[in-house]
From TrEMBL:
This is Cell shape-determining protein MreC. Residues 121-271 form the Rod shape-determining protein MreC beta-barrel core domain. PANTHER family: CELL SHAPE-DETERMINING PROTEIN MREC. Involved in formation and maintenance of cell shape. GO terms for biological process: regulation of cell shape. It comes from Caldicellulosiruptor kronotskyensis (strain DSM 18902 / VKM B-2412 / 2002). Residues 66-96 form a coiled coil. The lineage of its organism: Bacteria, Bacillati, Bacillota, Bacillota incertae sedis, Caldicellulosiruptorales.
Amino acid sequence: MKKNILLTIVVLFAFLFSIAATVVSLKNYDSNIVSRKLKEGYIPANSQVVKVIRDIREYITGILHLNQIIAENKRLKEELNKLKTDKITIEEIKSENIKLKELLGLKEQIGVAASFEIARVVQRAQEAWLSFFIIDKGEKDGVKKNMVVINNQGLIGYIVDTGTNWAKVVTLLDPDFSASAMVVRTREIGVVRGSVNLLSKRLCELRYISKDSKIKINDIVITSGMGEIFPKGIAIGRVVQIKNDRFELTKNILIEPLADIENVEYVMVIKQVKDINLSVGVK
């Protein structure tokens, strides 16, 4: 509305200006002729002035039209960005639902006697020489120190510290992690440990295995059940490298975790592990 009023004022001003210019241009004409023409209500229009008026009107109309196009373009871009955001949100929700369903599917594997808590990872270690993360469940949810943490792929780690609504999980890649383990095929027992030197490679090591061991590449390693924290049968990882140590007394075996620890988003905290089946991740 304001734009139309402005256009009208400009055109009216230009028209009045043209009349004034025409009158001035006729001041040398015969006064009787001028008087007669004025009485007749007619003053010859100056063609150049008319052209200027037309050009001004077209210019202003063009500006208004351009502003409309710019506004429409901005609106369409905003709608497009919203559609993209909505699509990303939908895909994220779908991905989250899949991960949660996979964890809930562990209930049948673990058994009806299991007591567990599903938690979301909310913070990760910033130090390059450590491997831990914080979850959004804590003491108010019954989460305590030394509880085992898994997902549908296998062992993740265990709880080392808790707060009212959070808990700290040390993963099996951390240098402070250790767990008694067993090679499924050969039934040999060793200890899986994290290592600073292997952390960047996302690997851990299996120690105290005899140099005469028959372990092969791709053998699966699980928790042995020896010790006070980890129950037997949780999948740890797959053998990816075998070497004799420098004294030729034992083998140095590298394990690749079956769980994608670096990108894990949801985990399951096992709150009660006695007399239940935890053959998680073992095919």
